[in-house]
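User:
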Amino acid sequence: MKRLDLVVAALLFALSFPLILREMGDPPRGALRLSVIQGDSRLDLPLREGVSWTRRIEDGTGGYNVLEVDGTRVRIREANCPDLLCVDTGWIDRPGQTIVCLPHRLVVRIEGAEGGLDGVSR
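Assistant: Predicted structure:
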């Protein structure tokens, strides 16, 4: 049984390797938008190469997240939530990638301008 487990694991790794390489490639270049959703509010902003800014987003109950944009990359640089998963997510730079902070009801998502196909529907 152990030999069969090893064969199955090797086969799964071999089949997933091309997908992993494709996802690690250069980020797509096109018109990207940053979508920031907090509670019932939504803000959509364009992402452009060479444009960097930082914004503190407060949730009204003392909670905050510091959003940092560096060209077409986005991250939560600082937060005062208990688990800091939003900070640990690090930089995102591809359409569909998301940073979520549940304690502060914050969702940060990169979206592409055109509908296009995602990794599943290709």
